[in-house]
Amino acid sequence: MKDFNVGIIQLPATSDKEKNLKTMEEYVSQAKNKGAHVICLPEMWNCPYHNSFFKKFAEEDFGETYKKMSQVAKENKIYLIGGSIPIKAGEKIFNRSYVFDRDGKEIYRYSKINLFDIEGYKESDTISGGKSLGVFETEYGIFGLAICFDLRFPELFQSFRDFGAEVIFVPSTFMKKTGERHFHLLNRARAVDAQCYVVSPAMARDADLSKNAYAHSLCVSPGGEIIVDLDEEENLAVIKLENEKVKREREKLPLEVSRNNRKLY
After folding, report:
1. Three-state secondary-structure class, residue 11
2. Which domain of life is it from (predicted)?
3. Distance in angstroms (rounded) separating the CA atoms of residues 97 and 42
4. Among 62, 95, 135, 221, which one has the highest count of C-beta atoms within 10 angstroms of its own C-beta?
């Protein structure tokens, strides 16, 4: 990994998709102007987080939102981690993230594996789970990509570490009730587990369809310190991620040595 600036964008999702796309475009431009090399959007940033809207807003692969993200990445000459959007594939809908390089070319995609099925709400009523995960590489380093509820599954983050990840992006839309109890805790724990930066752009809270969003987009260091918390409002931040911090954390606590030692028994 080499040092780079990451842009975190925190947006509400309105019922007007065109407005959501325009707002995203404006914020990416602002983050670029503040020096961001890699920019990440929240989970379901183009679509209110409700099962009924997933069906209404779902697009075919390479649809309107995909094209807009590709265009924005190319125009701003940045890597864009496109949060996630609802994507139709036959009879199924996936909660999918796309990654674009500085030429607007797709270099990676991930469909959320662990769906938000809890008491009183089931994402799986509309969304189908993905089946695979991995990492992607840029000139800045090797990155992992998860989505929201995936934060509760530490084995995924160990897989990212095993694959060589140094930064893990987790576009999210935690609700207020669970977010207040667990969002900071889970982000810090996964950063410490994997000894990676964890960058989690979240949906902003508003007075309308995103009123139950916890927000509080985070960037957490490999040692578990919170570098930035964007609170509740629509906002952005640009943060420098440093190779030395990943390297030193892994030198101070050589967890992989212990893991390799266990394999001898």
Report:
1. coil
2. Bacteria
3. 10
4. 95
Is the pTM value of this prediction over 0.85? Answer: yes
Exposed, middle or buried: residue 42 (CB in 10 Å: 0-12, 13-18, 19+)? buried
Shortest CA distance to 9 belongs to which of 179, 221, 151, 199?
199
Separation of alpha carbons 244 and 3, rounded Å: 8
Question: Over 80: is that where the pLDDT of 173 sits?
Answer: yes
> Which tens digits make up the pLDDT trace of 175-193?
999 999 999 999 999 999 9
Burial degree of 143 (CB within 10 A; 0-12, 13-18, 19+): buried
Contact criterion met (CB below 8 Å) for 83 and 76: no
Give the side-chain half-sphere CA count within 13 A for 25: 16
Pairwise CA distance, residues 41 & 128, whole Å = 21
- Selected catalytic residue, list 40, 112, 196, 219: 112
Write the CB contacts of 121 (distance below 8 Å, at least 6 apart in sequence). Answer: none
Closest CA to 86 of 61, 113, 118: 61
Q: How far apart are CA 21 and CA 262, in angstroms?
A: 49
Residue 264 has a pLDDT of 57
87 has which bridge partners? 59, 94
Active site residue 112: yes
Within its chain, how far is the Cα of 239 from the centroid?
15
Q: CA separation (Å) from 86 to 33, 43, 156, 212, 220?
A: 29, 10, 22, 19, 27
Distance CA 209, CA 30 (A): 25
Closest C-alpha among 189, 169, 28 to residue 102: 28
Query: Among this protein's residues, is 2 annotated catalytic?
Result: no
**Which of 148, 166, 219, 245 is labelled catalytic?**
148
Q: Which residue has the tokens 């991995």?
A: 134
